[in-house]
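TEACHING EXERCISE
Course module: macromolecular assemblies
Task: Read the component lines below, then compare them to the predicted structure of the full complex.
Student: A.B.
Group: 4
Components provided:
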Amino acid sequence: MLELKNLRLSYGSTQILNGVDLSVRRGDVVSIIGPSGTGKTTLLKCINYLVKPASGTITFDQIRMDYQRVDKAAIQAIRCRTAMVFQQFNVFKNMTVIQNVMDPLVVVQRKSKDEARQIALQELERVGLSAKQDSYPSQLSGGQLQRTGIARALAVRPDVMLFDEPTSSLDPELVGEVLKVIKDVASSGITSLLVTHEMQFARSISNRIVFMDKGIVAADGSPTEIFDTPSSPRLAQFLNSEHTHN
Amino acid sequence: MIPELLSALPLTLAIMFVALLAGFCLALVATTFRVRRVPVISQLADLYVSYARSVPVVLQLFVAFYGLPVLAGLFGVPDFLSATAASMLGLSLYHGGYLSEVMRPAYLAVDRGQHDAADSLGYSFRQKIFRVVGPQTIHIALPGYGNSLIYMIHNVALVMYIGAADVMATAHLIMERDYNQYQFQTYLVLAVIYSAMCLIVWLAVRFFERRSSMYVPNAAPIKTTLMASA
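Instructor-supplied answer key:
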């Protein structure tokens, strides 16, 4: 359903994406792993055009776009069918928890307030934040902020969820509550792409692991293939170092 | 003395309100162009802002009162500007430029992630500004805006140099008429009038600051000192 071809991007003389190809089938839960600075987050942000690649194409069901020719309608269509969960949460600071979840439904999807409220309540229940619905982000913990971000993303009923290192800026104690919610999302059948450094977690929820290194997809396979029989020395070395850190 | 001074207040307030309102609109337009980097127009907006911020306000008033009619004369337009109109125009231009440099940093201080989140959810630029970034910008800009309002109140006193009959000009008329007997008393009344205006502005700004203090992390009740602010 989602196919990226030959994505290239550089900042100055630093090549970030060096011709990335990636295709995702409906229902896939793909974890993207790899060393820092290899373009994992950048790749994810290219999908909804928060980052503009220099060249490449994206196919999202019927939507096709060549990144060299900006097509605003295509970008908008893709943005409306995907939802992103950010490393820094990016919960709207001027709105309460429930307003955060309702606002995109009212503003972008033009639903009535009542309908939006119902959906929002349902999603907040799902992430366990019903009791905090009227709190402002400044009153919440990191874990609660990220669960708000996830509820907001789920509420738009996306075809694809994009998780960008959702637990990387959380205190170790709070990681668990967020991972639990993500696991629940992944097992509900929503197509998901997850950039993460939580190897055990990636293994347990994904049906595919993509290993990125130096701006390309260096390995792509089932969790067993990637973790148990790494195809290259570089991958083995990376997994090894992650293992020692954890 | 006091009734005479107060009779000049409506004109003073009129100049002030026109300048505040027009200046605000000018600042919005200038800031929009400056943050969106529209070629040529953005550079012109930059030039305008640096004029408004770097030329003394008195000089800006002279430019409005003596300069513009000369410019208009080149195109065959007769002198149309009264002292009051020139005051309004000059102060609007000053306030707009000054305020733009309050708005622009406030806009830029809104976390990039807030833009990303709104974009990723499919908000249009307008929706993003009105729903998410704008309210946060206002919160950040409020203290600076409060200051610029107070500068504005003080700078209205300069319009007497181009002959507009505000409270300051009226005070001088009164003093001269009374052979400068009551100079100190007159200035004292004047000081009270200006302080009252600043106090009202300060209370209004504080009200809005408190209202939006929930947006900031670890929101502590905002503490403000009366003397320092007014």
